[in-house]
Amino acid sequence: MSAAAEATRADALRRDVVGRAGDRALGWYLFFFALLIVASFYSGGLFLFAAAVVATVYAAAAMVSTLGIGQLSVWRQLSENEVELGAVVTCRIMVQNRKSWPAPWLFFEDRVDDGVDVEGPRAACKTLPAEGKEHLSYRLHTYRRGLFRVGPTVAEASDPLGLVRRYYVDPKASFLTVLPRPVTLGQGWPLGHQPIHEVPRRRSLLEDPSRFRGVREYRRGDSLKQVHWRASARSRRLQVKIFEPSVLDGALLVPDMALREDAAVDEDAGGVDPVEELLITAATSVGHFVLTGSQAVGVLSNGADAAERYPVDFDGETFSHYADVVSRTRVDSHSARRRPVSLEPGKGERQWRRLRTLLARLTPTDGAGVAELLHVELPHLPRSLVVMVLTPRLDQALASALGALRSSGIESAVLWISAGSSEAPTARLPPSIPLYRIDRAADLKALGNQRL
Amino acid sequence: MIRDDAPPPVELPDVWDGAELEDAVDEGPLAGFDEIYAERRLEPPAQGPATGPSGDVEDQRPDAEPPPPAPRRIKEDDTESVFYTLTAHLVILPATIAMVTAVLFFLYDVRAVFLPGAEALKWVGFCFSTATVLIARYARLSISPDTARLYTFALAAATVFTMWASPWDSPGVGTLGALSNALIIFLVWRYATTLTERLSADLDVRPPPPPRLYGLERLEMAAAKRNRPDDRVSIYDIGRRAAERRDTWRSDGEAATRQVVFLIVVALVGVAVAEPVLLAGAPELAGQALSSLTIFLFAAGVVIAAAASIRDQQRLWSLGGSAGDGGLTARLGLAALIVACLITSALAIPGLETPEGSGEIVQRRAERGTPAEVEQESPPPSEERVEDPNADEPPVEHRSQDQRQAGPSWLASLAALGQWLRWPVLAATALLLLFGLWRLGPGLWLGLRGALGNLLRGRRGSEKGRAGPRDPFAQLEVLPGLEPRAAVLASYGIWLDACAHLDHVRDPKQTPLEFLTAVPRALADLRPVGEKLTRLYVATAYARREIDEPAARAARQAVDELQLTVDAIKRRRAA
């Protein structure tokens, strides 16, 4: 069963449990209310005395809590929205009580996703006077790439006894993108050299009409479109134009982000899958390497954008139970979307920023495999780019997909993220497709000493 | 094929104390990028992080506001505050003992309606309840639960034996009295241990200590620790376990408070049940029960307020914050004051004056009892009894109002004080409620209506849930009678229901094609027919042209095929 279906089932189950708990609570309320009515008839003072005290305390507590939770505003500021792995971000929040009466014992906390360390207080318990404000400041230490939500702020109002609590979830949340850190490739390369060959391909189905090479005599099968009429007139024999084959002008990175059943999360490394992180690091490094050579880089991946894990269209709500707050602010573990993540090929600094942002937010999904993705997207793949597949799995399906690419005239290469695995690939790639094995980050540096 | 990625949700421009920030960083990741980087050559990446873990990002921004003061790092010792120590050991514990003792005294007042000798037994029971609470409380800290149960059992046996022997009463309490004592001791033990354990869930589950290192420094330290074989537990493990505990701990704390409130409600229900019996007993019993009830209510209020304060403080610690002892102490003091004022005022509310027993049961038993029993129930004929000034007091029905004023003197003083307090307290409460109704009037009404509606809907929903999943093919016969477009749409609905029937539920965010590709391998047989229905649905739902009958026919055929496939899958699962 897919993760989305599991999440939906879990939600349905939780709703059912909450509904049944509500039923039980309603039953208890009705029981105690009936008991109160019956006991009041027979009470000579003892029970009425206790009931009067308890009811007054509860009503006053409920009123204080409800009055305290309304009309709150929260402002949050992050010093950076995009940082490189290892950077520190300062977050400041301000909570304002916009009421004309105080908000007593207001407990508010800023919720922060797992994946960043929080240094400093992100919660406070204060009585905010009318129109009063409270500031908080804390630091976020990043130790893994990804998209992390900072917020929303959850405020909780209570009474002196802490008997009744009301929760308010602010609608605003900030997002912090932690960019992957690339490994520098191609150290010491002379200027002018480029990572992807800018020479005619040895075997190309396509020719570049902008690269005119000359003319030759007409042969059977040549298209009439290729006839050079002026040269034919001069030589009195049919001549056809010939062009240089099209050249490669960059790389299309295809990171395989399908969920792996054998994925082992390294908790000591921050709860990340080391293979997945090495794959992203490799994609970032190769992307940077190619962009540095003034060549184009694009991305096509079967992963998902981490932003889709977060709930949308939330306007802020007030809750009576903390479990509802947790449910409302919950982040899905995996995205339910099945749309390929892609980035148009481009060059320059802008493309580098977009590439890093995209790779930072790329998360695994249980959707289509990379072979299926290549089959589906084959008609749309640009032929001027090398399709560089970065995958931890080399199976027969991928080999056949790469063979299909090759037959279509698309150059391709494979970066096998073996991550130290001693297992051999389960499929043999077509001989003309280069295979680069990446065990660790140091292999990436070695990769930069050769043309790709 | 190539599409732009969607930028992350971008915040609205923030204001900070009313002024727009100069260094606001709320723009999207690419806003203004072209102007800045148009002519700039791509630089190779830095070898290290742009800002190290020890650096401050504010330092990179010359035009930024002065950096805020560095967040205070919470020391682990901060979690041992004076407030926690005093409240946990000197407030909650005595208040819990007071609650349990009040319950015990109340039970003995009920017992005294039928059996004599309650006064001395109360103090034996007081010792028992005190020891029980202490054992239950400190068993979690230093001794095992089995040892604690052993101690409690020994204590209960000694207490019951002492009560049975009753060396202070010459005739003894008899078998019925011993049984009632044992029952009371059991009830009090159960109540005391449950209450103390629930409260301990608030007190003992300490928040995780904040880490001493953050970010990459923490990971590097964990890696260094891994290389040392003598350190079995990495820092990250500690932090991770602490984070896991934090979530469960908070919900556990709320559940513990609810259970404490539930135990208080149980005690009050016991009061409601036992009150008719008490009011039929001796006149002074009702007053004594009222004093027990007063102490119970006050102690319960203090316990709830103290536990809530401690839990708030612990939550603050777990989130890196800190709560001043002064504020929490003031909150606890205010809570105690409010409860005391309400109790005092309630003692003086007209109609709720101090109750008194009618003595019916005592008289009835005296009338029909044998001389020996009456003698046993009457006080012993000692010299003190002869010299007792109340020895020649008139019968109950002939006593004056002052003579019938039962209960200890402090209760009478409290009731007198309540005469002064009741109107201000009543006025303050009424004002608070009126203010709340005025400010929250429409919202409160809507909220109540919504809550009631939710409860009723939840009830209906749960009834549906109990009825089991809906049969996707229950209304198959209506398909041929539908318009072509409606038939295709209904067919797709049957496809969704069939998948849900087989535990593959569509996420609301999924498009039809995404849902189709997410069909699990276990339901791979459904994919061909699902593809037909999905393509028909997509072509129909978003079509501008009229849908013709062949499409509806194809949909109906697909539904028939779907039914066969679902039946086959169910048979396979059953096998």
Characteristics:
heterodimer, A: 452 residues, alpha+beta, seven-stranded mixed β-sheet, six-stranded mixed β-sheet, 9 helices, elongated, B: 575 residues, mainly alpha, 17 helices, 2 strands, 64% helix, 1% strand, disordered N terminus
Number of helices of chain B: 17
User: How many individual helices of chain A?
Assistant: 9
The N- to C-terminal Cα distance of chain B equals: 45 Å
**Assembly type:** heterodimer
What's the gyration radius of chain A in Å?
Answer: 31 Å
Q: Structural class of chain A, please?
A: alpha+beta
Quick one: biggest sheet of chain A? 7 strands, mixed
Strand content of chain B: under 5%
Order the strands across the largest sheet of chain B as they lie in space. 1-2
State mean pLDDT of chain A (0 to 100 scale). 79
Helix content of chain A: 25-40%
Radius of gyration of chain B: 36 Å
Could you describe the 3D structure shown?
By secondary structure, chain A is of the alpha+beta class. Chain A contains 9 helices and 21 strands. Chain A is elongated. The model of chain A is unreliable at 198-205 (pLDDT under 50). By secondary structure, chain B is mainly alpha-helical. Helices cover 64% and strands 1% of the residues of chain B. Chain B contains 17 helices and 2 strands. Chain B has a two-stranded antiparallel ribbon with strand order 1-2. In chain B, helix 2 runs antiparallel to helix 5 and helix 14 (484-501) packs antiparallel against helix 16 (527-541). The longest helix of chain B has 58 residues, at 409-466. Mean pLDDT of chain B is 69; it is low at 1-79, 229-242, 370-405 and 459-468. Classes of the chains: A alpha+beta (452), B mainly alpha (575).
Task: Please provide a brief summary of the model.
Chain A has 452 residues and is α+β, with helices and mostly antiparallel strands.
Walk me through the topology:
The complex is a heterodimer of chains A (452) and B (575).
Chain A: H1 3-42, H2 46-69, E1 72-78, E2 82-84, E3 88-97, E4 103-112, E5 116-119, E6 123-128, E7 133-142, E8 146-158, E9 165-169, E10 174-179, E11 207-217, H3 229-235, E12 239-245, E13 250-255, H4 274-292, E14 296-301, E15 304-305, E16 317-319, H5 322-328, E17 341-346, H6 348-361, E18 362-363, H7 370-377, E19 386-391, H8 396-407, E20 412-417, E21 435-438, H9 441-447
Parallel strand pairs in A: 2-10, 13-14, 13-19, 19-20, 20-21
Antiparallel strand pairs in A: 1-3, 3-7, 4-6, 4-8, 5-7, 8-9, 8-10, 9-16, 11-12, 14-17, 15-18
Helix pairs in contact in A: 4-6, 7-8
Chain B: E1 15-16, E2 19-20, H1 33-37, H2 82-112, H3 118-139, H4 145-165, H5 174-204, H6 215-226, H7 235-279, H8 283-318, H9 325-347, H10 360-368, H11 371-377, H12 383-387, H13 409-466, H14 484-501, H15 512-517, H16 527-541, H17 549-574
Helix pairs in contact in B: 2-3, 2-5, 2-7, 2-8, 3-4, 3-5, 4-5, 5-7, 7-8, 8-9, 9-13, 14-16, 14-17, 16-17
